[in-house]
Amino acid sequence: MQFGSASPPFSSADGTTLSRHLLEKAIRGWLGFALRTTRWRFEATPEARALLLHERGDGTQPGLLVAFWHEALALSPALWWWTEPRNPSMRLHVLISRNNDGRLIARIVTPWRIPPIHGSSDKKGKNKGGAAALRQIRQALAQGHTVAVMPDGPKGPRRVIQPGIIALAEKTGIPILPVGVQCTCLHAPSWDRMIVPLPFGRGRIVCGTPVSVEPGNRDAASQTLTQRLIAVQEEAGTQAATYPDMLATMPSRAVVDGPVHAPVSPHRPKPVGTPIIWSMLTSLLAPGLIAMLRVRVRRGKEIRERTRERLGFTTMRRPDGPLIWMHAASVGETLSIIPVIRAILEKTSLPTVLVTTGTVTAAATLARELPEAMQAGRVLHSFVPLDVPRWIRRFLRHWRPDGLVLTESELWPNMIAACNAAGLPVMLMNGRLSRSALTGWRKLPRMAENMMSALPWIAARSPEDAARFRMLGASNVFCDGDLKTAAPPLAADASVLEAARRAIGARPVWIAASTHPGEEKQVLEAAKILRASYPDLLTIIAPRHPDRGAAIANEAKAAFPADGQPPRRSQDEWPDASAPVWIVDTLGELGVLFRLSQIVFMGNSLIAPDSPIEGGGHNPLEPARLGCAIMTGPAIDNFEETFATLGEAIIVVRSAQDLANKVKALLDDPTRVAALGQAGERVATRDQNLPFRLADLICRTCDCS
């Protein structure tokens, strides 16, 4: 010890340092104790899990941006502790401000092998570290590290994304993984209502669909990231106690991998009242609905001999034994439930499956995919009765099903109420609820809540959908995957495929599939542009509604007047060596087309500014399962999560010229086409066990296992 020094041996500075050290140690001890004694459940979409665990499959170690709201900062180590044992090569950094609070947090988490990257300012905004932080982040990402960012920090506003993370993702091409974290806690009286964990509680970590930022598309990416962050945080905030049946099967203090699976013992919902106003309204509209059916018959959208099925009548006999009623609105939903139907048919109780659809094309799809089961009477088909109470009751009196399984967004209040009154469980499988649908149902909150409370369970296709269902009052919601990733590849008639290949020969080909009015004009414009570079190019147009074939043929003739009327598949016409366009206006032949060319544009997405069509997209997993490189327009609200899961395997086009440019780039580079196709195929075929899990749950719920 030196005497006569300028400072006493125990100065105020030393006291401050000691106090700070004790404070840090106390906070770290409490936080570590609370987080490690919390019973965590981990949920992630397959693409999120692959990014966290570096399971890309191409040998690379890509960098990753992880985003969570500032309120969950204290819980973020739990994600790291789950990931590190499973991916020892992972290196995590967290972006923290330079202010005093930020430095305190940095000193707390650094001993947990979470080095901070300091950004923001430390002296009244004068010493900004943004540029230096950006360099550090880019360097870390280039090395394959993971960087955690709180996009609404350091000072808010709460849950409002600042532009930095979006700009960073755009410049680096690195996806942003939205993460929600919640547990048994208190909330600090701070601007962000900081979550303070309590020990021996329950917690959930939910990793949603990654967000990729395309150049020049920051606003849309910011909106998407905001929606997904809110969705996963709300999902995580639904406490684990909501799922007692699932928790009963889990070991104490276990960290649960993967998505939340179905409950082992589904509960029976309490009876709910009939939606009086909706019931009266639909009853009053019944004569108008009958007139509408007659119009649909004239347009080819209904089968005249079977329109009485829409009123609940049938000429079929109910078979003996268990009967499970499954409803799928159209072709896409029908294709998605076929693997589940096959799994149900394998049950020892030998249940019969009654499938109702709302369209003729869906009925034809069912007959094509399950011919033997339908011939044997194990699968029956009826057109679904319209949602008029007496028509639904008539249907139920005849069929007496053991339960009803709805698909995606097919929520009909009278149908659900009638089944509930008859004591029949109503389940929702592959549940989908878009933002616009959520907005619509929120205008009828009482009806929506009654309807949700009548369902024993909802199997949502994504955490975002699960969160929206909970906003409407649903309780037993779980997310076990998207059925459309478990469907088999579309079938193809071998003789038709061989005839098409002979007709086309070695010509270059691309396909515009499931197009809607207004899109064919843009496709034909792109085809004209492309013929300048590829004079023998064949453009195949497969409209979503085949009855529009003649109208599209007229548009094609106007676009290519020198080539006359284009061949149409419905007329048994095949393209010759010079035909620029072939119109495949038939049902059930996309499986053939996706085998003729790997370059596919999916329709209902490239909407002209003055078009009355809203768009929404079509299922891109169908071409992805067959290794196609997929293009889409920007109007994909109905399949936003599905397109997002395919990530970089999807090419977005915004005009006819852009479509022509992207098709030409693919025609010029077959290697890229193959790479895009392989990337999409990996995503589209990742979970083949999901149909069997859902089939088990359906049979248990219907008491016919």
TrEMBL record:
Q: In which pathway does it act?
A: Bacterial outer membrane biogenesis; LPS core biosynthesis
Keyword set, alphabetical order: Transferase
Query: In what residue span(s) does the 3-deoxy-D-manno-octulosonic-acid transferase N-terminal domain sit?
Result: 306-486
Enzyme Commission number(s) from the entry: 2.4.99.12
Q: Where is the DUF374 domain?
A: 87-158
* Cross-referenced SUPFAM superfamilies: UDP-Glycosyltransferase/glycogen phosphorylase (SSF53756)
What superkingdom does the record give?
Bacteria
Where are its TM segments located?
none
Catalysed reaction(s)? lipid IVA (E. coli) + CMP-3-deoxy-beta-D-manno-octulosonate = alpha-Kdo-(2->6)-lipid IVA (E. coli) + CMP + H(+)
Reported function? Involved in lipopolysaccharide (LPS) biosynthesis. Catalyzes the transfer of 3-deoxy-D-manno-octulosonate (Kdo) residue(s) from CMP-Kdo to lipid IV(A), the tetraacyldisaccharide-1,4'-bisphosphate precursor of lipid A.
Tell me the PANTHER family matching this sequence: 3-DEOXY-D-MANNO-OCTULOSONIC ACID TRANSFERASE, MITOCHONDRIAL-RELATED, 3-DEOXY-MANNO-OCTULOSONATE CYTIDYLYLTRANSFERASE
Task: Please give the name of this protein.
Answer: 3-deoxy-D-manno-octulosonic acid transferase
Give the classification, highest ranks. Bacteria, Pseudomonadati, Pseudomonadota, Alphaproteobacteria, Acetobacterales
